[in-house]
Specification:
With 361 residues, the protein is mainly beta. The chain has three helices and 29 strands.
């Protein structure tokens, strides 16, 4: 991979968006659903800047502007609705190959992050039991934010309206602020999504903007196309078995059927489990198409959630920083280095990243 630290954002957007208002003489608000490339149009967002919870509407349906980036070899796209990635594909000689599952819009054109290519896990991943957790002697109740599910899922970043901060032809930066309403602690988060040739990079930063410490976890939730005889390879030693509520109950050495180190057929895995300790390297191969995708993640993302739902056209390989329900596990005495829970002090910033690099088999 090339140097990922050289993005030059030529058009900084330092002010907050105002819906429909002209930003200057040549940059104006765009229409809902408009695709933004590196041209003269910027996005507008709704008045609150916050997406409704799914139990309130059944799906997300605010203005859903999409930003496209591209190189000669690849394309990617990002939506401000949930801060989601909605496409990453190879492009060559007029043909395309989706490396992430492309967005599937709702009947009215709305975007549900769970139908996107990837959504961010901010400020925690996976489940919090019954939406309740304890931290530093205080108890917190979160919204049950995934339909009829009894837990809180995947943080709040995927249910917020993000803002466009910077963009170029091959990179985009978006950001969002939480004032303590969506989540009990104030934070500021950014995402940078970029292309370098055919390679893809996704970076998340999380800053505690409140005046007290906050518990935190980060990760990415990508969806990969379930084509043919797809194979997943990853160096992991153990896996968490789940209880009837989908929460981790027992950590065991990986059984033969989940021996990812030797390469495992995705169709044969049948799992929704977290693997650890992970060294930050994995490979997804589609032998029929003769394409391989290397996945690499930052050191803090040292756990891997693998989800292979039966009958679906996708599977998920999620780099994450902590186990499910980590905040409660730590409150019950599990050391943070075991649960993976991170504590961010006021003003502290945490940065993680994931890279995807395709190559022919």
């Amino acid at each position: 991979m090339g140097n990922w630290e050289t993005y030059e954002f030529h058009q900084p957007l330092r002010q907050r968006f105002t819906p429909g208002r002209e930003r200057n003489k040549t940059h104006i608000g765009c229409n809902p659903g408009e695709v933004i490339t590196n041209t003269k149009r910027f996005a507008s967002i709704n008045e609150t800047g916050i997406m409704p919870h799914p139990e309130e509407t059944g799906t997300h349906s605010p203005q859903t502007d999409i930003i496209q980036i591209a190189t000669q070899e690849a394309q990617a796209a990002v939506t401000l609705a949930g801060g989601c990635i909605v496409a990453y594909r190879l492009t060559s000689n007029g043909s395309e190959f989706d490396l992430l599952r492309p967005l599937s819009r709702g009947a009215n054109g709305e975007i549900d992050p769970r139908a996107a290519s990837l959504f961010p896990l901010i400020p925690y991943s996976n489940r919090i039991r019954n939406g309740r957790f304890r931290f530093k002697g205080r108890a917190f109740q979160l919204p049950l934010n995934s339909g009829n599910q009894p837990h809180s899922f995947h943080g709040v970043g995927w249910q917020m309206q993000w803002r466009l901060k910077h963009f170029t032809d091959r990179a985009v930066e978006i950001d969002v602020s939480c004032d303590g309403n969506e989540w009990p602690f104030a934070f500021y988060a950014t995402q940078v999504i970029g292309l370098n040739g055919r390679d893809f990079r996704h970076e998340i930063t999380l800053t505690n903007t409140g005046d007290t410490a906050m518990p935190a976890g980060l990760g990415m939730h990508p969806y990969f196309p379930r084509r043919g005889k797809a194979v997943l390879t990853a160096d992991v030693a153990a896996v968490w078995l789940n209880d009837d509520n989908g929460l981790p109950s027992e950590r065991i050495p990986c059984p033969d059927r989940w021996n990812l180190g030797a390469g495992a057929r995705v169709d044969a895995l049948g799992c929704d489990n977290q693997f650890e300790s992970w060294n930050g390297h994995a490979r997804i191969s589609w032998p029929d198409e003769r394409i391989s995708l290397e996945l690499k993640a930052s050191d803090d993302l040292n756990r891997l959630v693998v989800y292979t739902p039966e009958g679906e056209d996708f599977f998920c390989v999620e780099p994450v920083s902590h186990m499910a329900d980590a905040f409660n596990r730590s409150a019950d005495g599990m050391p943070p280095e075991t649960s993976g829970m991170r504590v961010l002090e006021p003003g502290e910033t945490w940065r993680v990243w994931m890279e995807l690099s395709p190559s022919p088999l």
